[in-house]
Design a protein that fits this description.
alpha+beta, Immunoglobulin-like, 3 domains, four-stranded antiparallel sheet, 12 strands, elongated
């Protein structure tokens, strides 16, 4: 019999001794490495997205800067037109600013949808070409509402009529009220809105 041949399990059972080794730190290290690789992949992509967003963000410090952005959007030179701020409609930290675009023989209007900054600046979100009621009475949809601009010095009243053409609501205006910006909130039974001059005629 070969006395030098000793089985491993015999030694372990003889001494009743074991050396348990916790290998969880190895798994933890692999998880950490995997997390680092994911971060190294995502971070550059996130940085690129942030830089792209910032480069496309239109920030204006003043209304003059907004005018310049509007001029660029319309592809107009300073010699061709005069852009003037008229009035605004503000809801919380959002504002719709109205501007007139005066050319040699005509005047157009644009509404600029902006986010108001705490330092007094603006983030331009959109520029709207309004719908025309008359030459100097225009309106556009904004924040689920219809916002009107009245820039007609002859306008003296806003009226709402029902299906029988009877006036059911009337807002009187004075020359000092112009320009006038308001959210159209017609009575429930109103079917038509009109704008009247000083003699009561409908402005067209």
């Amino acid at each position: 019999m070969n006395l030098c041949k000793v089985h491993k399990h015999s030694v372990n059972s003889y001494f009743n001794f074991s050396l348990p080794i916790d290998l969880s730190f190895i798994a933890g290290g692999e998880t950490m490495q995997r997390t680092c690789r994911i971060v190294l992949i995502i971070f550059p992509l996130l940085l690129v997205l942030i830089l792209w967003f910032m480069s496309n963000l239109k920030i204006a410090k003043t209304q003059d800067d907004l005018k310049n952005l509007l001029r660029q959007d319309l592809h107009l030179s300073e010699e061709d037109t005069i852009i003037s701020y008229i009035d605004d409609y503000v809801v919380d930290d959002h504002a719709l600013l109205w501007f007139s675009v005066q050319k040699e023989y005509s005047t157009d209007y644009r509404a600029m949808d902006c986010r108001l900054l705490k330092n007094g600046g603006y983030i331009l979100k959109n520029i709207y070409k309004p719908m025309i009621y008359s030459q100097d009475i225009v309106h556009t949809m904004w924040m689920n509402g219809d916002i009107f601009l009245i820039n007609d010095p002859d306008c003296r009243a806003i009226t709402y009529r029902d299906s029988s053409h009877e006036i059911i609501s009337k807002i009187e205006l004075s020359p000092n009220d112009i320009p006038y910006v308001f959210l159209d909130k017609p009575p429930s039974d109103a079917t038509k809105i009109d704008f009247l001059d000083s003699t009561g005629n409908i402005i067209r």
